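If you are new to this repository, start here. Below is one unmodified record pulled from the training split, so you can see the exact layout before writing a loader.
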Amino acid sequence: MGGGGRSPLFATDPNSIDAAIRKQVQQGTAVLERTSASIARSTAIAVETEQVGTGVLGELNTQRDTLTRTRDRLIDTEGELTRSKRIIRTLSHNVLYNKILLVIIILLECAILAAVIYWKFFMK
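And here is the target side for that same chain:
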């Protein structure tokens, strides 16, 4: 019953046991290094994502402020437009009243002129 079919860990030769342990340690170290590199890449991506997110939040805050100012200006403009409509309506009514008054004055002047002409030429 030879030891040729046995695992190196069960071999009686100390060199083969050390070599097997060394190989497992090297494999474990390689896995650990790959895992560490993967974690470092993931951390770098997370930091970059956080920076992008911070930038986006800053832009969104700026845009929110801009939209708030625009909304406030729109509300002010709406109030001014309402006020302007009232003023224009008042002016329109005043123009209509002035035209009516002007027509009445012209009709009175025509009536007075007709009366003066009648009195001047037909009352003698």
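Two things worth knowing about this chain: The two ends are 169 Å apart (CA to CA). Residues 19 and 25 are 10 Å apart (CA to CA).
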